[in-house]
Amino acid sequence: MNLRPRTSVSLLSGMLTTAFCLAQPLDLIAESPTKGVDCVASELLPNSIIACAEVSDLGGVLETVLNHPLRLELQALPAYDGFMTSGAPGQLQMGLRAFEASMGKPWQEALDTLTDRGVTVALDVSDGGGAVLVHSSDAELLERFRGLILALRQMQGAKTKQGDYRGFIADLVSDKLKMVRMHDWLLLTNNAELGKRIIDQYLDRDGQTLASSKTYAVASKDLGTGDLNHRVISAFLDVKTVRDAGFAKGVFNEKIDNLAAELALGGVLANLRNTPFVTGQVNLRNEGLALRLITPHQRDWESPREYFFGAPELAGAPPLLEVPNRLFALSTHRDLSQMWLRSGDLLSDRANDQLAVADTTLTTFFSGRDFGEDILGSFAVDVQIVGTEQDFIDMLPQPAIKLPAFALQFQMKNPEETQPELRRVFQSLIGFLNVTGAQNGQPQLDLGMETIGKSQLITASYVPDRDERDRLDAKMQFNFSPTMAFAGQRIIISSSTALARQLIEPRDGDEDQDASDSNTIGRLEATSLRRILEANRTQLVANNMLEKGHSKEAAENEIELLLELLGFFRDVRLNLDVTDSQLALDLAVDVKTDAKAQP
Amino acid sequence: MSDMKSIDPAWAWEPFEPTVDQPWNRSLVAHLYRRAGFGADLTVIDEAVGRTPFDVVSGLVASNQESTEFRSTAEALAEATLAGRDPAKLSAAWAYRLLYTPNQLLEKMTLFWHGHFATGAEKVKDARMMWNQNQLLRDHALGDFGDLAMQISHDPAMLIYLDSAINRKAHPNENFARELMELFCLGEGNYSETDVLELARCFTGWEIKNKKFRKNRYQHDSDLKTVLGQSGNFDGEDGVRIVLEQASAPLFIARKLYRFFVSDEPSPTDALLQPLADLLRESNFQVAPVVQRILSSNLFFSSNSFARKIKSPVELIIGMLRCLKATTNTQLVAKGLMSIGEGLFYPPNVKGWDGGRAWINSSTLLGRANLVADIMENEATRFDGKSLSESLRGQDIQTTEQAIEHFEHCLLAVRLDDATKAQLRDTAASHSGDDERRLRSLLHAVTSLPICQLC
Asked: How confident is the model at residue A509 (pLDDT cuts 50, 70, 90)?
């Protein structure tokens, strides 16, 4: 006997009955349109709001997602069948049927109408105070929705609790959350005072609001730029208030402990210590999702960060390095020498102490030449990093864990002087690694030298033990063949000889690539990432078994799904753009609109 | 406490026959599975109740080789773990094996030999050597102890652990020779210091080169030696053979097996153990017949054995998981076992784990409760692939009372008294979280009970 449909129907009818009982006739409540009807959310929210985000077109988002070209591909995945045969879709379907029955129209249409004038999430400066404002063109539908929420709550066994404020009924919908419908607005808040201020503003329209805040007004101009047709979320964060209130102190520390973090984000963190606000925009298209964060910027806010932004003019990043099977590339403008020398202004005392020790060691290593001034100072301010998938075909021994290769490229200011010095240091370093490696039973590196055209490579490759030459599960070290290459003004420090060889070869179009206007540009290629993970499938499955206690079959299925899903992505792009008045960070995730057509 | 002298050895090792007073029921079967393995869920227990004790024990002992499929999965997992070269990761791979193995007795005996021929990864540092030793222990777990002792004397991990990787005739290393007699085969008082020196000379020239065992004939002392009363130009193999020929050897092994399977204390008399020692000698040190004799005996199913052992951390944690058909993050389990004193591949010293009361002190007792709490809170923890509440509902367990009774049947060697049950009911009632949280909290409370530490 199958009880499931009967249960669903009875549940559905029960919910509907309760929903209609709980939903109040529109003429019985404080319903007459008031001053707040035609305003926007920022005109209802008080000026103590420190962060808010508005989803302007939820219906459009749903339409893009549900009608995306990849949907059929997703449905073709074995995991999709597995999901459909599990109990979860049945519960989801039942929930949607209840929603549709309550709303009196298909769920997608109902959701579109319910939110067609925007959904705004806001955070107040007061302790954890938050509010969600749903603005709809259909007040009656909003009331039905309210009834549905209350019905669901009653079905969970919770008692109905209501309060009244200036003619509006506030329903308790969870331990802390209250819900109020104000004509075509639905307000959800966990903070009674915040709720009252929103209702006051709705009725009186005479208080200080977010819209009347000067900071928000300036931020709104930023939010009004860009691709408005595909905008799905617009967000605002009052950084100054957050800073003044003492939140996230670690982010706003004047000096940080971590050299790598300073190198990567020093300029951004410096900006956050001064900027009044940040705006965010999320755009959704069939081709992918893009996030843009914009903040005001002034060069004199943090003068020590000239190494980051450029001196005396703003400087751009060199082009991304192009190599076959590229996994990632990152190019940026950074004056490493200046950063090293100015570390006293940039880093905490603790980090500086550590840096002083490192400086002494490196200066000794570089035959007494000052590491910051002479060694780092011999490089131009262009930093290029690239990672690629390694080709292990026809190579023995093969490492059990197959890692990508990566390389750093700098421009030398004076190659004739720098090249011999660095070559010598590289050879010393390999010798040092051999000595320490031998003490720990690690394989040894064999030094070599290659000349290709006018380029020179100093190579080092691990020598396997005699009985381990044919192994397919060799140590991780066999991913590496450290190489330093010199090609004209360029110096390449690579984890593999093959990658260094690729990088010294001039590629078509290289000469056409100019430095970009962006301070930092980056790209992660999903296809290469997928192939690298695929090459390490055994390790991923094993890790899944150990971490999740899965059987081998379940672990294999999960990893297969991960790889399949990764196959839908094209790349992730990053850009950090700096002008005299603005700093903008763009992050875009691109998907393949036709996965089968892709390699 | 019963007087061990009053126990008749003949009665003790006679096969157990169920009676009206002591029927073959869930309680006895669960006892058998807790000792012969790590525990079984109620389905397995109920199935075993339908068979005779002899059949069930015979089945456990006969299952002394892993199926090709399971072995291949376990080895693939270990190989993948070995790629990282970190012995600590191997612990998780073994914990996974303990949790999933269909050959519980085989794995339990592998753990026994790991404690007997204790070798620590902390000193050996080489994950592959540790894994090779583990496979060696597993391959011989229910086989020929003499062969195992011989193999272990060639084992690179063992020789490195006992500082015997280089053993030259000019300076014979006494470590392995001493431990072979004291800890592995004979026990204290059954050899002299001279025997240690003479036996050490037998092993000269045995060394580890490139992670492999080899005999360096140039460094072997080929002069006459006198070991345990026998004289000759002996080498290491002769030394192991002579040690195993000693009368005290089978009694020593029988005593360790008794303590592992029957009870921590009181210590059994030699007379009680002699039938087992005789069986070992008669069977040329075959382990399986002795283990079968112990597990099917009157003594094993008597009050001298029931709840007379303290669960090791592995028995507590793997047992809880297996009895409830649970799976979890085995890296968490391995790390947790290490923190409460039974790190797999990390015995505390060459003597292995002391066991018994040494498992429990105020720190490890708290650590046990914390580890169970960590497992309960870990999102990877599932019960028969479901949440605990779904799993219990699937077994028609609806109320707190029924859940307590279920946990009692699955996890405890002795029944709960009314006061403890009331205390558990209060614990469950006072929990304000959802059903899942409440049941996990109840399970945590049950496993933290002192009574749950008994096996």
From this structure: low
DSSP A380: -
What is the separation of C-alpha A198 from the centre of its chain, rounded to a whole number of angstroms? 32
Distance from CA of B14 to the nearest CA of A (A): 41
**Dihedrals φ, ψ of A205, to 5°?**
55, 40
Q: How confident is the model at residue A24 (pLDDT cuts 50, 70, 90)?
A: low
| CA A222 centroid distance within chain | 21
Residue whose structure tokens are 């998907």: A591
Residues of B in contact with A552 (CB under 8 A): 73, 76-77
Quickly count: other Cβ atoms within 10 Å of residue A192's Cβ. Answer: 14
Q: Which residues does A352 contact at the CB level (< 8 Å), separation at least 6?
A: A343, A344
Taken in order A424, A425, A428, A429, is the CA torsion positive or negative? Answer: negative
Give the distance from residue A225's alpha carbon to the nearest chain B alpha carbon, in angstroms: 43
Query: Who contacts B248 (Cβ-Cβ below 8 Å, separation ≥6)?
Result: B186, B187, B190
**Nearest CB neighbour to A548, from listed B76, B80, B329:** B329
Q: Is the pTM here over 0.90, yes or no?
A: no
- Under 8 Å between Cβ of B317 and B371: yes
Question: Which residue, chain included where needed, has tokens 């890296």?
Answer: B331
CB pair distance less than 8 Å for B331 and A547? yes
CA–CA dist A426, A459 (Å, integer): 9
Q: Are A400 and B329 an interchain contact pair (Cβ–Cβ within 8 Å)? A: no
Is B93 close to A546, i.e. CB distance below 8 A?
Answer: yes
The rounded distance, in Å, linking the Cα atoms of A437 and A419 is 27
Residue pLDDT, tens place only, A518-529: 999 999 999 999
For range A49-74, the mean pLDDT: 89
CA distance A255 to A252: 9
Q: Mark yes or no for CB contact A549/B328 under 8 Å.
A: yes
Checking if the pLDDT of B76 tops 90, the result is no
Smallest CA-to-CA distance from A185 within A139, A120, A131, A150 is with A139
C-alpha distance from B329 to closest chain A C-alpha (Å): 4
3-state helix, strand, coil in chain A (%, to 5): 45, 25, 30
Size of interface A-B (CB pairs under 8 A): 61
pLDDT in tens, A292-321: 999 999 988 877 788 998 877 888 999 999
Contact B96 A552 (CB under 8 A): no
Taking an 8 Å cut-off on Cβ atoms, the answer to whether B80 and A551 are in contact is no
CA atoms within 13 A on the CB side of B224: 5
Give B181-194 pLDDT, tens digit per residue: 999 999 999 999 99
Please answer whether residues B55 and B335 qualify as being in contact, where contact means their C-beta atoms are separated by less than 8 angstroms.
no
Return the amino acid letter for A133: L
Supply A97's token pair. 């049927």
* pLDDT in the model for residue A312: 75
Strands A119-124 and A231-237: unpaired
Write the pLDDT tens digit of every residue in A419-442: 998 999 899 999 999 999 888 778
Question: How confident is the model over B69-88, as a mean pLDDT?
Answer: 85
Determine the Cα–Cα distance for residues A428 and B254; give it in Å rounded to an integer: 60
SS3 A231: strand
Give the whole-angstrom CA distance, residue A185 versus residue A187. Answer: 6
Best of B86, B214, B322, B331 to disrupt the A interface (most A CBs within 10 Å) is B331
Query: CB A551 to CB B329 under 8 A?
Result: no
Tell me how close the Cα of A545 comes to any Cα of chain B, in angstroms: 8
pLDDT attached to residue A154: 84
Among B75, B77, B96, B383, the residue to mutate for chain A (most A Cβ within 10 A): B77
Alpha carbon A366 to its chain's center: 39
What's the pLDDT at A300? 84
Contact call for B329 and A475, based on CB within 8 A: no
